[in-house]
UniProtKB/TrEMBL annotation:
<protein>
    <recommendedName>
        <fullName>Major facilitator superfamily (MFS) profile domain-containing protein</fullName>
    </recommendedName>
</protein>
<feature type="transmembrane region" description="Helical">
    <location>
        <begin position="453"/>
        <end position="473"/>
    </location>
</feature>
<feature type="transmembrane region" description="Helical">
    <location>
        <begin position="136"/>
        <end position="158"/>
    </location>
</feature>
<keyword id="KW-0813">Transport</keyword>
<feature type="transmembrane region" description="Helical">
    <location>
        <begin position="426"/>
        <end position="447"/>
    </location>
</feature>
<dbReference type="InterPro" id="IPR005829">
    <property type="entry name" value="Sugar_transporter_CS"/>
</dbReference>
<feature type="transmembrane region" description="Helical">
    <location>
        <begin position="320"/>
        <end position="342"/>
    </location>
</feature>
<feature type="transmembrane region" description="Helical">
    <location>
        <begin position="87"/>
        <end position="104"/>
    </location>
</feature>
<feature type="transmembrane region" description="Helical">
    <location>
        <begin position="200"/>
        <end position="222"/>
    </location>
</feature>
<dbReference type="InterPro" id="IPR045262">
    <property type="entry name" value="STP/PLT_plant"/>
</dbReference>
<comment type="similarity">
    <text>Belongs to the major facilitator superfamily. Sugar transporter (TC 2.A.1.1) family.</text>
</comment>
<feature type="transmembrane region" description="Helical">
    <location>
        <begin position="170"/>
        <end position="188"/>
    </location>
</feature>
<dbReference type="GO" id="GO:0016020">
    <property type="term" value="C:membrane"/>
</dbReference>
<keyword id="KW-0762">Sugar transport</keyword>
<dbReference type="InterPro" id="IPR044778">
    <property type="entry name" value="MFS_STP/MST-like_plant"/>
</dbReference>
<feature type="domain" description="Major facilitator superfamily (MFS) profile">
    <location>
        <begin position="26"/>
        <end position="477"/>
    </location>
</feature>
<dbReference type="GO" id="GO:0015293">
    <property type="term" value="F:symporter activity"/>
</dbReference>
Amino acid sequence: MAGGVVIASSMSKVYPGKMTLYVFVTCLVASSGGLIFGYDIGISGGITSMDTFLQKFFPKVYYKEKHTLSNNQYCEFNSQLLTTFTSSLYLAALVASFLASAVTRTFGRRISMLGGGIIFLGGAAINGGAKDVAMLIIGRILLGIGIGFANQSVPLYLSEMAPAKLRGMLNIAFQLMITIGNFIANLVNYSTNKIEGGWGWRLGLGLAAVPAIIITVGSLFLPDTPNSLIERGHNEQAMSMLRKIRGTDDIKAEYDDLVVASKDSQLVKHPWSTLLQRKYRPQLCMSLLIPSFQQLTGINVVMFYAPVLFKTLGFGNDASLMSAVISGLVNVIATFVSIITVDKVGRRVLFLQGGVQMVISQILVGTLIGIKFGTTGQGEIPKTYAIFVVVCICVFVSAFAWSWGPLGWLVPSEIFPLEIRSAAQSINVSVNMFFTFVVAQIFLSLLCHLKFGLFYFFAAWEVAMTVFIALFLPETKNIPIEEMGLVWKKHWFWSRYVNDDTDV
Ligand code: BGC
């Protein structure tokens, strides 16, 4: 079958190089681009459940929530207007990632990160000072554009900077920052909810400026990657950068491979149509399916709606926000599991183990809720029972945190050859944003219609994606990024697309 582990060890070139302090610090700074994404995911859910925010901007929603006495737990929080507000950001990010593709390829990865940080900062300022819904939406669109740029460029940057043997670990710093941003947002939600006077939401939205400043200032000081420097004709600079980040003068083999990759890249004038060529079919499929599957795990149901979900389980306001803080912390801690293991056990093992764990925990959550609320959505959940449901949700979150979360960003960023890397990464980001948008849009009405079966719906997707990985994803650990074409050549299925006549 896919048998990637054998491939990885038997054919990968080994370039000299170690973890230098320089590469560590650079990757750490670049990965902070994940903070803005994570913070926003966490803050949106908290803000939209705050009474003072709703009263000011969405009075009708507020009125309806307070005056509609629904005894159907599944349908209690179904407001299309609010979800549209939340998900407008993802549409902006989707469009922006295509623009970012051209910027990243032509001007380098760093400029995209810098641009992303500045635009996000503008969005945070407008949102923090918002006086009406128009300001809120404009701010949100800017936040989305910033995220589109950062998510397009940061994973590529990390994968190109890292030595092959540590690429997984350094790239997952991006996901770690997403989870930290998210966790901090949950804490902010918890604290600002207690602020008297109704300006807590302003603080939550305005504080998004902090992660934006970190990535903006950080990227002013970052160097560009050797791959991107060569691609743009700065060969001398690239060579000294390679020496610096690899901590050795013995960089000739790697440098030569980068130059070859860059020559191929220069021949490609239209990366988008190139991507459609038969020989890039494996990469095209992965750039479409990995992000779709990542979102079809249902993770953002927990990330956006954790407080709502926990309220449905019968927790009070405070306890719901606290439970979101707890699941956020689990998310951060569990990410370390993948950081430590990804370059040792490989990507496939994490994907497969995480997939199975997600299926089991989602089925448990669905069944537990089904037993108490049935199909009518009526009933009460005793405290200890509700706590057990939260534990199951945490088991699900942790599985995601060491599998589809980090690998959904890592794997696409390492499998695209240089000539289509930037374009394919935009597809990855835009598909990810599209499905984030779709899940955010339809979750509340799906919950209302599918009831506890919604959790089985996601579990079914998790079965499909786990089988997909088992059959179609070759192992990519430890393989130098510009050598990656070989894994498809040896793969039982993909080799028919990437045969020996085609250049890889
Ligand atoms: C996903 C996000 C998700 C986050 C949770 C990321 O990898 O792309 O959609 O909210 O993980 O930690």
